[in-house]
Design goal:
There is one protein chain. The chain is of the alpha/beta class. It folds into four domains: 167 residues, Rossmann fold, CATH 3.40.50.11040; 165 residues, Rossmann fold (3-Layer(aba) Sandwich); 236 residues, Aminopeptidase (3-Layer(aba) Sandwich), CATH 3.40.630; 102 residues. It is built from 29 helices and 24 strands. The strands form four sheets. An eight-stranded mixed sheet has the order 10-11-12-9-13-14-8-17, sandwiched between helices. It has a seven-stranded parallel sheet with strand order 3-2-4-5-1-6-7, with helices on both faces. The longest helix is centred in the last third of the chain and has 21 residues. It catalyses: cytidine(34) in elongator tRNA(Met) + acetyl-CoA + ATP + H2O = N(4)-acetylcytidine(34) in elongator tRNA(Met) + ADP + phosphate + CoA + H(+). This is tRNA(Met) cytidine acetyltransferase TmcA.
Length: 751
């Protein structure tokens, strides 16, 4: 096995203080408060004093020799290490970029935050505000609560070093007025904050591992895979989790050869994994997401491909499992005997806590012998690192909902439902933590950027269910619609895609429904119930309260958009929402199609929803044999609207001959399609069973082959045709079909 260095060395500290181990030195935040030009010059001087070589300067401009990196491009630095980061908040504070930046700073490094003076920053025209403004609002309408939250946390942290352009007469502890004493203080650290060594047992550490935690995790992974026991590995950022998966994959190939499959929300998330595989097994070839070596291969497949490929029985490593919907994970669990799910617990790209709560319950039900593994020891910085802990508080990465034991005792009758004024979130930090913690738990894609949206977006509203200071449920809605005619025309013609207004833009730009432009809509963006109180009607009560408030405000319709699944669709239909649009591009991670549902509140809203459902009926019938050929029959039955069908006398005669006699299916397929186009409500009125309805969907509407259908049903083609004859006969005899035929005949006679 090749030898690898356990860490990268640090240069000697000024004054001959010697070489500290990379993970033994804490990281700190330096806060430079003043005018933008002054702050940038001071940052450059501090970097020069520290002799920093690898520097990430986040902002729009930087003094020489540094190069500014725009906030959206910081993600490209993930996986790299820096001696220092300069984060220029004078150019805008992007929460996601800040979190990503923190993850690049190696032990002993520093993050330098530039901002206006604290009291001025709380009212500063932050350039980032323009990204939170949605028509008809402008940047001036965006709140300042998020920055006020940052200032409060920074000022309360005794481990933050401050350099002020205009210091008070008596500076507080930790405040500096010149670069030189600040630079020296950074090497010494704050009193009472000793560096915490991660290498107290370094003698036991074996290369190529970078921590004992990582070494033990790889051993446990290999043992679990040998035993064919499902594994769940959780860790915070910087613990070497993805590298541990790569080391385990390489060692598995050394022992067994063959193929190790890996998956994640995207191939980019597996860069560290493949780096470790290549380092441990040199001489192979990495190409198109697969590393092929004489001993075997490590190959990436998207989650959706894994579900439909002939890959049962292989080893599967799932990284960033929290970003993959739980139903997909459950199907992977059923398909692979040797499987590991790894997830980041607190992350700036999303969170693993919802995964930890919900999917573990599914694991316990399906595989009671599963094993939980964790990694807590950082590999690139010290334990209890001041910068990591500060970033958690700034971005609420470790926010938790109310304790389950305290919430479980609440009766639904105790709960009060109210529209929350967001200033209350700053007055009650615990309320903010509970609310954001609940949202994080409910949705795997919650990021630090969502915290700023929650606090400051002018088009956002919050409803909560709570009792005794504990949040039991939450609802986030955004205002949409009310678009001017010229903008609506540009959207219709494909020239404009303004920020926000998801539902009106889809109805105008994709379905051509210009009537959506002036109407007011409230789109439910997030809805969450505390796991300890699920299935108590809390979410439905929140929706009922929203509906009553929206009617009083003159809103025309309510809407929502999500990846369509049977359980979610059932919940929304139960609450009065009907499908009005379905996308045709399948999510490669979740394997779902995005759908829009709506509930009308006004006469104009009802007219729009009816027109959208009519359009949905036509588009579904057209797309089911092609783009939507893989849409589950159960979902088609729930989505396809009902409409009248008028059969001609010739079509009816064809169908009667097929149903009562022995006419071939193919000879009357167009008439059968027309008969079934009325939709599932008519099929149910004719008394067709669920299995008979699903057969109509798969064969008549989706035009699947006899062989594909026979794989999941008893009998071959002859039995399937017999079932179709019986269904056609009952549909022809249905009262609704008879009345429609009479109307059709009347039209023909009058013609």
């Amino acid at each position: 096995m090749p030898e690898f260095p356990l860490s990268d060395p640090l240069p000697a500290a000024p004054g001959g203080q010697g070489r500290a181990h990379v993970s033994d030195r804490p990281r700190y935040l330096v806060w430079l408060q003043g005018d933008a030009g002054w702050a940038r010059r001071q940052a450059a001087a501090l970097l020069a004093a520290r002799g920093a070589q690898q520097v990430l300067w986040v902002g729009t401009e930087a003094p020489r020799p540094f190069e500014a990196v725009a906030a959206p491009r910081v993600q490209r630095w993930l996986g790299r290490e820096t001696d220092a980061v300069v984060f220029d908040a004078c150019a805008g504070f992007n929460p996601n970029a800040f979190g990503q930046s923190v993850g690049t700073v190696r032990a002993g490094g520093v993050l330098i935050l530039l901002s206006p003076p604290a009291e001025r920053w709380c009212h500063f025209a932050d350039p980032e505000q323009q990204n939170l403004a949605v028509l008809p609002y402008g940047a001036c309408d965006v709140g300042h609560r998020f920055i006020r939250h940052l200032v409060r946390v920074l000022q309360a942290d005794t481990q933050v070093f401050c350099l002020l352009q205009d210091p008070p007469a008596s500076p507080a502890a930790g405040h500096f007025t010149a670069i030189e004493p600040l630079s020296q203080a950074l090497y010494i650290g704050h009193p009472g904050t000793p560096a915490v060594s991660d290498r107290s047992h370094a003698a036991q550490l074996v290369a190529p591992f970078r921590s004992l935690d990582q070494q033990h995790a790889v051993a446990d992974i290999l043992q679990g895979l040998e035993d064919a026991v499902p594994l769940v590995l959780t860790a915070d950022r910087g613990r070497g989790k993805s590298a541990a998966l790569g080391l385990a994959a390489a060692q598995w190939l050394e022992r067994h050869g063959g193929e190790v499959l890996v998956t994640a929300p995207g191939l980019g998330a597996l860069e560290a994994l493949f780096e470790r595989v290549q380092a441990l097994l040199p001489g192979g070839e990495l190409k198109a997401g697969a590393y092929r070596h004489a001993l075997g291969s490590v190959r990436y497949l998207a989650p959706e491909r894994l579900l439909h490929g002939d890959t049962a029985g292989e080893v599967l490593l799932v990284d960033e499992a929290a970003a993959i919907p739980a139903p997909v994970l459950a199907r992977l669990l059923a398909r692979f005997r040797r499987i590991l799910f790894a997830s980041t617990v607190h992350g700036y790209e999303g969170t693993g806590r919802g995964f930890a709560v919900r999917f573990r319950r599914e694991l316990t039900r399906r595989a009671p012998g599963w094993r939980a593994l964790s990694m807590e020891q950082p590999v690139r910085w010290s334990a209890k690192d001041p910068l990591e802990q500060l970033s958690f508080r700034l971005l609420l990465l470790d926010a938790e909902p109310a304790a389950a034991a305290r919430v479980r005792t609440l009766a639904p009758a105790q709960l009060s439902y109210q529209r929350l004024e967001r200033d209350e979130l700053l007055r009650q930090p615990k309320l903010l933590e509970q609310l954001f913690g609940l949202l994080v738990l409910a949705h795997y894609r919650t990021t630090p950027g969502d915290l700023r949206i929650l606090l400051d977006s002018p088009n956002l509203g919050i409803w909560i269910a709570s009792a005794e200071g504990r949040v039991a449920g939450a609802l986030l809605v955004v205002e949409e619609g009310g678009l001017p005619a010229d903008l609506a025309g540009a959207i219709h013609d494909g020239y404009r895609r303004p920020a926000g207004h998801l539902i009106p833009q889809a109805l105008i730009g994709q379905d051509g429904l210009m009537a959506a432009a002036p109407l007011r809509c409230l789109r439910v963006m997030r809805i969450a119930t505390h796991p300890a109180l699920e299935r108590r009607g809390i979410a439905s009560t929140l929706l009922t309260g929203l509906k009553g408030w929206a009617q009083g405000e003159g809103v025309d319709y309510l809407g929502t958009c999500f990846g369509i699944s049977a359980d979610l669709l059932g919940f929304w239909r139960h609450n009065g929402y009907a499908a009005i649009r379905l996308g045709t591009v399948k999510d490669p991670v979740g394997g779902t199609f995005a759908g829009i549902l709506a509930q009308p509140l006004s006469r104009a809203g009802a007219t729009l929803v009816a027109a959208a459902r009519q359009r949905l009926h036509a588009s579904l019938l057209h797309q089911l044999p092609a783009q939507l050929a893989e849409l589950e029959a159960q979902l088609v039955l729930a989505l396809l609207p009902c409409t009248e069908v008028a059969l001609s006398s010739a079509e009816r005669m064809e169908l009667e001959t097929f149903a009562r006699h022995n006419r071939a299916y193919e000879s009357c397929e167009p008439a059968l399609w027309k008969l079934c186009a009325g939709g599932p409500e008519q099929w149910q009125q004719a008394g067709l069973s669920l299995a008979e309805q699903e057969l109509l969907v798969r064969k008549v509407l989706q035009r699947q082959s006899w062989e594909a259908i026979a794989l999941t049903r008893k009998g071959g083609r002859r039995a399937l045709v017999r079932q179709l004859r019986e269904s056609a006969g009952r549909l022809l005899c249905a009262p609704a079909m008879g009345m429609m035929n009479e109307r059709s005949a009347g039209v023909q006679r009058s013609g």
